[in-house]
Amino acid sequence: MTGETIHATCVAFADIGILLRGPSGAGKSDLALRLIDAGAVLVADDRVALIQKSGDIVARPPEALAGRLEVRGVGVCVLPQAGAAPLKLVCDLGGPDPIQRLPKLGWCEYLGVRIRRIDVAPFEASAAVKLRVAAYSAVGRRDPVSGARIACEAGLRDNRQSEGR
């Protein structure tokens, strides 16, 4: 199995891993804490090990960091954690530039596997809800809390099925 370790944070809603990317101090751990408060489970903070397994990218924590989340101004918190999660959404944390109102579908690639990618302003009050909706939409499911699904994802899912993907 090939793999790599990257500077990022990862949480999961059930079987849907969300990778949070951004420079140090961008809000990865802060947003992860809010996602955990919204029902996610910590996979890894600060460093995320990625491996390719059965056509998916699986995220897991490096052993030394498992179950630990650095909360700025509080310290390192020990939390329940998922041992691993299939990565289904990558979120780049936005800087000072405004996030596009209606963005085109974005993608990134790890270890030869394409993964849905979005930009989010990490300190917006709605950031955690936006990510939960986007994560469930990325796998063709409705958000179990709000019932929402991103319209373009529904169309994308149908197009993939008709193309035999």
Compute the separation of the termini in Å. 24 Å
Order of SSEs: EEEHEEEEEEEEHH
Number of helices in the DSSP assignment: 3
- What does the oligomeric state look like here? single chain
Low-pLDDT residue spans: 154-165
CATH topology, by name, is Rossmann fold
Q: Biggest sheet, in brief?
A: 9 strands, mixed
On the 0-100 scale, what is the average pLDDT?
86
Overall CATH architecture:
3-Layer(aba) Sandwich
Please state the CA-atom Rg, rounded to the nearest Å.
Answer: 15 Å
Give the tally of β-strands. 11
Kindly estimate the percentage of residues that lie in beta strands according to DSSP.
35-45%
Number of individual domains: 1
Q: Could you say which overall geometry the principal axes of the C-alpha atoms support? A: globular
- Helix-and-strand structural type: alpha+beta
Secondary structure: helix percent: 10-25%
CATH superfamily: P-loop containing nucleotide triphosphate hydrolases
* CATH classification class: Alpha Beta
Give a written overview of the molecule:
- By secondary structure, the protein is α+β, with helices and mostly antiparallel strands.
- It has one domain: P-loop containing nucleotide triphosphate hydrolases (Rossmann fold, 3-Layer(aba) Sandwich), CATH 3.40.50.
- The chain is built from three helices and eleven strands.
- The protein has helices spanning 28-37, 127-138, 151-162, and strands at residues 3-7, 9-13, 16-21, 41-44, 47-53, 56-60, 68-71, 75-78, 85-93, 106-110, 113-120.
- Strands 1, 2, 3, 4, 5, 6, 9, 10 and 11 form a nine-stranded mixed sheet that branches. The protein has a two-stranded antiparallel ribbon with strand order 7-8.
- Helix 1 packs across helix 2 (127-138).
- The longest helix has 12 residues, at 127-138.
